[in-house]
Amino acid sequence: MVKVGFICEGDVEKILIESVNFQSFLKRLNIECVKPVINATGKDNLLPHRIAEHRENLTNKGPEKIIIITDLDDNVCLTLTKDRIRPNENEIVIISVKQVEAWFLADSVTMSNFCGQDFFFEFPESENIPYETIRKELLKIKGRGYGRSAKLRFADKFIQSNGFSIENAANHPNCPSAKYFIK
Question: What is residue 127's predicted lDDT score, i.e. its pLDDT?
Answer without folding.
Answer: 94
